[in-house]
Amino acid sequence: MKRLKLKSVLVVAIAIAFSLIAIASYPQTANKTLTMATSPDYPPYEFKDTAVSGNEIIGFDVDIAKYITKELGYEFQIIGMDFNGLIPALQAGRADFVMAGMTPTPERKKNVDFSVLYYEAQNTIVANKGSKLTKPEDLAGKKVGVQLGSIQQEAVKKMAGVEMVPLNKIADIIQEVKSNRLTAGIIEDTVAKGYAEANPDLEFNVIPNTEESGSAIAFPKSSRLVPEFNRVLQQMKDNGKLKEFATQWFSRPIAQEPTTDQPAPTPKFGLDFGKILPNMPFILGGIWVTLTFTLLSAFLGFIWGIVLSLFKISSIKPLSLFANGYTSIFRGTPLILQLTLVYFATPQLTGYNISALQAGVITFFLNSGAYISETIRAGIQAVDKGQKEAAESLGVPYKLMMGDIILPQALKNILPALVNESIALLKDSALVSVIGVEDLLRRATIVGAEKYIYFEPLIFVGIIYYLMVLSLTWGANVLERRLQSSS
User: Fold this and answer.
1) Considering the entire predicted model, what is its pTM?
2) In a 10 Å sphere around its CB, with 0-12 CB exposed, 13-18 middle and 19+ buried, how is residue 349 labelled?
3) Under a CB-based contact definition with an 8 Å cutoff, are residues 452 and 257 in contact?
4) What does the mean pLDDT of the chain come to?
5) Average pLDDT, stretch 361-382?
6) How far apart, in whole angstroms, are the C-alpha atoms of residue 138 and residue 321?
7) I need a labelling partner for 164 at 20 to 30 A (CA). Which of 218, 245, 309, 408 fits?
8) Residue 164 CB partners (closer than 8 Å, separation 6+)
């Protein structure tokens, strides 16, 4: 009876866990809703003014998208992710359209459809002051940074003798230039404006356009929305609405800290944490996201790890072959590959629009279960064989023997290894930022993009991660001492 109750509790707990995931991530949207995917780290096109608008994505592209969807009679929804995941999001059916200052290059047109251009911009050379890099010919033989998947990447490919270095974010390019690991970077002029004001030690030189270049809206192939969006875009050009939005956002002053009559002290080591003080509540909100994700993944991974470990020591050959093959696959492939496959491939293969939180929890508990199963298997096999023989001689059923005799002793022995796995899971949880989950790391990068800074928000969240790991380690040590004293 006791064993049946325990089994029922486990089943109910797993059901509750999955229900919490579904409730936390279920999109509450109307039937007639259009979803826009973007990369909210590209001011003034799309970003988060976290000190003012909180968690809301704002910017030039967002205002245009809201205007168009309203004119067409749709509800509007927006999701954020890394720039290089936007095209896959369209192909997987995760979004109806993409706006991210994206240029319709020939390569992109092979995979998605585009609207007419709604804004034309120019590329800008970013370099340290005194570099005198004013035109593409000056970059020959130099290392030049570009954002991965951007139009600037395509432009640099055409520059003779340039060593191109693709990076994920504009902030990465700026920092690499400032640290002299890159000679220069190529970014868009409207984005360069903010970085120029925030980095007086850099110089910015606009490259004149030699061919048509600008931003357009991306859609899945053969989307019925293309002519509708083109019609409203033309309407916005005719009535001056596009020009109004451009003036509003591209002439927007960069937010500065309040000034006083006293001169501001020079920050030590070139760092100024005062810049992110108004944004700290937004960053700290990521603690709950990170802990929720980690706890759900750890709990489900532990249950799954027990099941796999029992399969591995089972005398039933198909079960042991499955468990060993499963572990080999999940330990032999990168975690970030598993994460992106679950997130992007699930809607395309099954039609189910899995949320970023669901994809993250599922991937991590499946991956963690593979590692935990090996730890538990080793713990079970380390228990004195005499325990098993004594139980069998007394006629104790196998399930009761494992649940009441072997597993409790094994878990006590492997507790330090399980804690190490939990710590690794907590730190690896930062990977979910690549699919748009606003955990601690992603919130730090959002604030960095908004403030045009790099180190301060990352150092701040690094301290938070460290404190969480220390707390987990302390709790595990207390539990271990109590288990030892009870033995």
Assistant:
1) 0.65
2) exposed
3) no
4) 81
5) 86
6) 60
7) 218
8) 144, 146, 153, 156, 157
7: CB partners within 8 A, 6+ apart: none
Residue range 333-364, pLDDT digits in tens? 999 899 988 888 887 778 787 888 888 899 99
Q: Of how many residues is the chain composed? A: 487
User: Highest-confidence range of 342-346, 378-382, 407-411, by mean pLDDT?
Assistant: 342-346
Return the higher-pLDDT residue of 217 and 201: 217
The CA distance from 218 to 35, in Å, is 12
Q: What is the model's pLDDT at position 253?
A: 57
HEC sequence for the chain: CHHHHHHHHHHHHHHHHHHHHHHHHCCCCCCCEEEEEECCCECCCEECCCCCCCCCCECHHHHHHHHHHHHCCCEEEEEECCHHHHHHHHHCCCCCEECCCCCCCHHHHCCEEECCCCECCCEEEEEECCCCCCCHHHHCCCEEEEECCCHHHHHHHCCCCCEEEEECCHHHHHHHHHCCCCCEEEEEHHHHHHHHHHCCCEEEEEECCCCCCCECCEEECCCCHHHHHHHHHHHHHHHCHHHHHHHHHHCCCCCCCCCCCCCCCCCHHHCCHHHHHHHHHHHHHHHHHHHHHHHHHHHHHHHHHHHHHHHHCCCCHHHHHHHHHHHHHHHHCCHHHHHHHHHHHHHHHHCCCCCHHHHHHHHHHHHHHHHHHHHHHHHHHHCCHHHHHHHHHCCCCHHHHHHHHHHHHHHHHHHHHHHHHHHHHHHHHHHHHHHCCCCHHHHHHHHHHHHCCCHHHHHHHHHHHHHHHHHHHHHHHHHHHHHHHHC
Neighbours of 157 (CB within 10 A): 10
- The structure tokens listed for 89 are 């999001």
